[in-house]
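TA notes, week 10

Several of you asked for a full example with nothing omitted. So below is the full record: structure tokens for the whole chain, then the designed sequence directly under it. When grading your own attempts, check the secondary structure regions first.
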């Protein structure tokens, strides 16, 4: 089976396995429970396996992406101060409910 050029959608990450040379990541999708329509059950969609150097490269790429997203969010808050106040109030409500 070849996935060349195909996109695979996942809803989340399951277990991570590392044997000293290869990192394996379980990729999950959510499917409705046939008995309860409101409940979603995770199913294994596939497994991503990579050598440690690729895992380090993935980590570095994700760190850059998160930094870029934080920078964009900060710029958006500076450009739209009213939006930032609404977001801060929503975050305060979430913390108060915990």
């Amino acid at each position: 089976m070849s996935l060349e050029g195909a996109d695979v959608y996942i809803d989340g990450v399951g277990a991570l396995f590392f044997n000293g040379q290869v990192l394996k990541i379980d990729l999950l999708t959510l499917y409705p429970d046939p008995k309860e329509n409101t409940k979603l059950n995770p199913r294994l969609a596939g497994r991503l396996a990579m050598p440690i150097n690729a895992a380090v490269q993935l980590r570095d790429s994700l760190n850059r992406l998160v930094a870029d997203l934080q920078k964009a969010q900060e710029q958006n808050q500076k450009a739209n101060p009213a939006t930032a106040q609404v977001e801060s109030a929503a975050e305060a409500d979430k913390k108060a409910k915990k």
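Strands lie at 12-18, 22-32, 40-51. Use that as a sanity check on your answer.
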